[in-house]
Specification:
The protein contains 12 helices and 4 strands; from the N terminus they run H-H-H-H-E-H-H-E-E-H-H-H-H-H-E-H. With about 375 residues, the protein is mostly helical. It has one domain: NCX, central ion-binding region (A middle domain of Talin 1, Up-down Bundle), CATH 1.20.1420.30. Helix 2 packs across helix 9 and helix 3 (about 65-90) runs antiparallel to helix 4 (about 95-125). It is globular, with a radius of gyration of 20 Å.
Amino acid sequence: MSSPARRGPFQWTVALPVLGVALLAVTWPKTEQPLLLALVAVVLVGAVLAAVHHAEVVAHRVGEPFGSLVLAVSVTVIEVGLIVMLTLGGGDGAATYARDTVFAALMISLNGIVGISLLLGALRHGVVAFNASGSGAALSTVVALASVCLVLPGFTVSEAGLEYTGSQLAFAAVASLVLYGAFVFTQTVQHRDFFLPVRSDSQGRVTGVFDVEDADGDGHADPPGDGETLLSVGLLLVSLVSVVGLAKVLSPTIESTVSSLGLPYAVVGVVIALLVLAPESIAAALNAARDRVQISLNLAFGSSMASIGLTIPTIAVASIWLEGDLVLGLEPMQIVLLFITVVVATLTVVPGRAKPIQGVVHLALMATFLFFSLVP
């Protein structure tokens, strides 16, 4: 990951997050003024780009894989808050909002982020390499989480439909936390080297590991100082709050547009997931272009994992106060898409290297998911 440029006090990376919070205070919880909505959309995009910048500053200071973990967890924590807020808001799609948003985040991460990262990296560098052991462990954890939390609810018999009973939901929540905690321990303590970006030859064969203290490749270590890092941590949190808060402000407009177009309510979850995952998507693409595909995969799989592993336990606790049903089980078409994605992702990860075709395949699955979300 290249060293982010140092900033002055009036640069946009400082101004936009603050502007986003100020605009959020003016427009919360919603506004119907067209000009304000247009301004919200513009500032939202700027806050996304600012979040990417500050995440890179923090990542450059703490090194990998902690940098990827910081962004994945930060985004997911705010995403969970957004899911709970919208679920509390009620409405026709409240029962399936958590499922639709988490599944959309899963598809966007495993196909969209992975696909664009592999395609950009391979087009620029010919063949990209990554550590199959680390990425394989991440993928297997994602598959286990998705199976327990999103697939099994449709096959249990204690509760009708696609829902868990209270005890089943509690078990899924505990299992999610155990799986997520075990992976984070593996990634950051036990086998940290499995998640570091690797060097490779022209055939994609791994030849070594990048020096995480000299990530920009200029021959000397130059991470940001403590003061700049702390400022970026604060501005990253402010940026993420702005992104998700402004997305919440835009959500009534999105919902009314979806309804007026006669589209399924699940499309709302897809749009919100696209907005929330934008910082990670941009960060992954930038790292892929720098031949740091391992970091891109850390972000993609980490986002998927955190989205399920943190959302389900939170929803399980919130369900004590939430009224109405909580539908977590996937529909048959969603299960098929998940199964195909898992098979393709496994075939992508196992060799430890990829060419542009792998990126195209993942992006084709992403397009398929988006199309059939619009036309189920």
